[in-house]
């Protein structure tokens, strides 16, 4: 049996549809892996919400993402969704989980190996679960976002579907912020940069911290220089990239991966990112953007944007952050797991 | 092998210690079952918080009840606690779960049979999990608190440790409310009864609904006729029972069981309860209290309290709601499960 004919279950989160309509980075990556594996001939079953869109076999027990369905108790939906995948473990050679810490507690109750891609440690309080299950199989999405003591098999960078983000040759005139409206993402710093540089800033994304939005963002909105346009889908992102001279990503805590940085680069948009966490793995200083330490740095970096070759931005994404590159790496990880498991059983 | 030498795991909730220091009905019952089984010669392992007190083997992965430990994420603690029991399933002939719907999703991943005592359906939103696992083994705590379609083996009434609630011959002069301060428990109705009857009311229990307490209870407190004394432990309960002419339990939604009704009766205190849910299974009309439909009924019933023989209250608890009676019933249920399982395997 060729390895690519092994049966893989991909366990996606169910906060949103897979792939999400708008926001939902974990679901996006789970979708990209699923479709990438299918394209490469794997037999894949995607465990996700019923309204998900996939070329894999879809196995669903909840109708919609719980963020899109007020009638559902997220805890109930999660328990049903995760356990369903594990109840079907016998049908798979591998379960590839994207479900945070909750799926780990089921892993010792089945024989099928489980690989967990850790898309980020959502809180220090979840660490006791990772510590207990540290001997499992783990992948980090950046070298910087790792916890000590876990059995990491590799870092596999997230890959995007480049066809969704066509290259745009012409440099736009505005600054763009794209992401959750949350202090972690430094939207307030992006506003400062816009004011100091005299450039227009367009802010897009879901409001995750209402108080932050009300107190630190909304007062600056003026319909002219600082604009908030709500969450955007892929089409909306491309329209933003068309207007973007640069993407501002002044995160205040270490970034775990930063999918939007890659999406912007794919469209040819340079990125100015805070040098925290994974940003220096995703952005190549002086080539696809600039890494900065503060607002003043960011303003200075803006002047150097013309130095960036927009084609180089896209080409780096093609080489390092495509679905194919990601899935190839995952195939190597799967292969390692199959070898380990075969040795264990022999 | 005598059946009583079979190994039983009791999975207790971890909101509180088992048994709880004050409030915590589910943990109380899990404790009573555990200690009752041990007393009758069973080999019992109690899965509960580490500070729990038991004569069984204690297996703990969380230090304290999450309601008593702000550092803990309840979701993380629950996942760790429940999965731990299921990971050790092979060591037991039966797992007796008191853990609401969350434990059910693990049941198909192990071979050990799992009995779930449903202490109440905490929300309609949890029903999809019960429906999926309806073929499991279930016990209801009253005939009234049943959901259609579940595989119930029996109703087993909760039993209490009568030695904790000694009989008090003398009838007190006050009205007592004991329970969560929540609209479901009709504390506001108890206050109305106190005002209409001119009797003093002492209210004890944790505040579960802050707005309700602030708006509908607090304004009536006057340190003289309507008093709130906070949550009480067993000693505090007995002091209250000493002062009680009657316990008022004017629940506004169907009661699931009503442990406090039994505790009051054990001390000889008659109960005036709303005729909703399990109350008519727990209280015998005219013998251990009165069942009422509204406040006016309750005021009328107060006049008939002298008709109640306090010794009859205790004696009914001895017969129907003792730990021994409860554990004997559970032994019959266990026996049924062992028979079913043996047939399945043969």
Give a description of the structure.
- 2 copies of one chain form a homodimer.
- Chain A is of the alpha/beta class and 346 residues long.
- The first copy, chain A, has 11 helices and 13 strands.
- The first copy, chain A, has helices at 25-39, 74-87, 127-132, 187-197, 210-217, 234-243, 259-266, 279-282, 295-303, 310-320, 323-345; strands at residues 7-11, 43-47, 57-59, 94-97, 114-118, 137-140, 152-155, 174-178, 201-204, 226-228, 244-249, 271-274, 289-292.
- In chain A, the strands form 2 sheets. In chain A, strands 3-2-1-4-5-6-7 form a 7-stranded parallel β-sheet, sandwiched between helices. A 6-stranded parallel β-sheet of chain A has the order 10-9-8-11-12-13, sandwiched between helices.
- In chain A, strand 11, helix 7 and strand 12 form a beta-alpha-beta unit.
- The longest helix of chain A is centred in the last third of the chain and has 23 residues, at 323-345.
- The mean pLDDT of chain A is 96.
- The A-B interface holds A 71-73, 75-76, 79-80, 82-83, 86-87, 101-102, 105-106, 108-110, 123, 125-126, 128-129, 132 and B 71-73, 75-76, 79-80, 82-83, 86-87, 101-102, 105-106, 108-110, 123, 125-126, 128-129, 132.
Oligomer state of the chains in this structure: homodimer
The structure class of chain A reads: alpha/beta
Which percent range fits the helix content of chain A? 25-40%
Number of strands of chain A: 13
Physical arrangement of strands within the biggest beta sheet of chain A:
3-2-1-4-5-6-7
User: Which protein chains are joined by the largest interface, and how many residues does each one contribute?
Assistant: A-B, 24 and 24 residues
Shape of chain A: globular
Residue stretches of chain A low in confidence (pLDDT < 50, at least 5 long) are: none
How much beta of chain A, percentage-wise? 15-25%
Instruction: Please report the distance between the alpha carbons of the first and last residues of chain A.
Output: 18 Å
Mean pLDDT of chain A: 96
Number of helices of chain A: 11
Rg of chain A, please?
A: 20 Å
Biggest sheet record of chain A:
7 strands, parallel
- N to C succession of SSEs of chain A: EHEEHEEHEEEHEHEHEHEHEHHH
């Amino acid at each position: 049996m060729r390895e690519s004919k092994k049966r893989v279950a991909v366990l996606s989160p169910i906060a949103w549809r897979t792939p999400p309509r708008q926001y939902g980075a974990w679901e996006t990556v789970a979708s990209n892996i699923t479709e990438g594996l299918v394209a490469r001939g794997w037999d894949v079953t995607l465990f996700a919400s019923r309204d998900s869109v996939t070329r894999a076999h879809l196995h669903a027990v909840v109708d919609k993402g719980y963020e899109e369905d007020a009638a559902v108790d997220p805890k109930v939906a999660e328990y049903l969704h995760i356990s369903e995948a594990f109840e079907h473990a016998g049908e798979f050679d591998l379960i590839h989980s994207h479900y945070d810490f909750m799926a780990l507690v089921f892993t010792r109750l089945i024989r099928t190996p489980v690989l967990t891609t850790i898309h980020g440690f959502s809180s220090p309080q979840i660490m006791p679960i990772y510590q207990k299950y540290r001997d499992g199989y783990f992948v980090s999405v950046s070298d910087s976002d790792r916890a000590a003591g876990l059995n990491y098999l590799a870092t596999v960078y997230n890959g995007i579907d480049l066809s969704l983000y066509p290259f745009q040759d012409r440099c736009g005139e505005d600054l763009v912020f794209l992401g959750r409206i949350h202090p972690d993402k430094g939207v307030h710093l992006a506003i400062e940069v816009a004011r100091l540089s005299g450039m227009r800033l367009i802010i897009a994304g879901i409001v995750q911290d209402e108080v932050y939005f009300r107190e630190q963002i909304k007062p600056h909105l003026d319909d002219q220089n600082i604009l908030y346009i709500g969450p955007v889908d892929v089409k909306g992102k491309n329209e933003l990239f068309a207007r973007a001279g640069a993407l501002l990503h002044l995160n205040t805590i270490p970034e775990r991966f930063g999918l939007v940085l890659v999406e912007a680069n794919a469209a040819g948009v340079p990125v100015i990112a805070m040098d925290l966490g994974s940003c220096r793995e995703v952005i190549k200083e002086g080539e696809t953007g600039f890494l900065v330490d503060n607002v003043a740095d960011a303003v200075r970096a803006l002047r150097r944007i013309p130095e960036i070759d927009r084609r180089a931005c896209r080409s780096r994404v093609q080489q390092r952050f495509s679905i194919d590159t990601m899935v190839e790496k995952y195939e190597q990880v799967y292969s390692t797991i199959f070898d380990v498991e075969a040795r264990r059983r022999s």
